[in-house]
Design a protein that fits this description.
This protein is an alpha/beta fold and about 375 residues long. The longest helix has 16 residues. The radius of gyration is 25 Å and the shape is elongated. It comes from Caenorhabditis brenneri. This is F-box associated domain-containing protein.
Length: about 375
Amino acid sequence: MSLFPDFKPKGFPLLKLPLLARKCVIYQMDFMKVLELSLMSLRFHYTMLFTKLQVDRFEFLLNNDFLGIAIKDQTRALYFQVNTITKVCYTWRVNKQKTLMSRKKDYSSVDRYSEGKNYRIEVRPRGYRIETKIAMAEELTQHFLGFLKVKEFGFESDMRPVSNDVENCFAFRYAKDFDNLEFNRQCYKRNPVTPEGLKFLFESLQSNKLIVNLHVTDPNVQYLNPLNTRYLKIVEPNWTNFPGLGDDVERLELKNPFNEFPVEAVNKLMKNWIKGHYTKLADVIIWTRKVEDDLHEQLFSEINTVQTDFTDRDLRYRFLPPQSERLRDIVRVTDMRHATVSFADDRVSIYVWQDKHLIALLG
């Protein structure tokens, strides 16, 4: 049974056309039909190896609840989930190897990158071990990246086998530059990464959004080189020497659920910002179990603060509570730009008032 049952006429005349004509037709086809046909027909897959089909996004999804890949354009997405399925609808070929797949289903999960109707194909792995399932995800990757031209890549993982050996994760053999690169796990201490693995993530890969919710096997590890990513979320403040924080960082989150609040690190960050560093920085959020009463004084050690001049309406625009004694502004000496520091029960936030925020307040 095909997702597009009326598309494959008897004899498949498309493949009888000259190569150039075939490529012209393929460029006009729906990309989801092309992906399906590359699995159905070896001859069509061979044709695609000479045809670079452009797609907006290719995602590696190596999670415990969804292991596979996703291929997307601006309106739709096709998900391939590696799963131990019980009902087989057809036998297709991945990388020329016969592979059992399940009936396709509408996939109605929330997808921030595509707005239209999404589909899912379940793919049976060639074994039951997690390593075998990951190997099937790589086979799917090899199959499709043989003919796809991808605008941007995404990566998400919460699996221990991936973080334990991050340098050898198959995804990083196919892409080095990502839109988002996320290692998420609620109980992060059960998901360790070696110091070498952390260095690999920071030095060998590029991303606009980097989330590293991992526990490093060496608690004293430090990383001193600049991290030039727009969004950075980490759990160990000592990973990053803040003078080396890249100037491209716009949002920084420190999720520090078990350790003491990183007073010295955040104090150093504010001092460097006041001196003129981190010109693009807009938001800093430091999560912790509890903000102690004396943190206010410790955090502003050797830092001059002023009462904020922003109104309650202005503060609500930046998701800040109304004015109180626990709101203070720091001022950058190079351009007199303000940043508001907020203290809540479970976090400390620093909101820099960039030009775009000030313009929005006037509008």
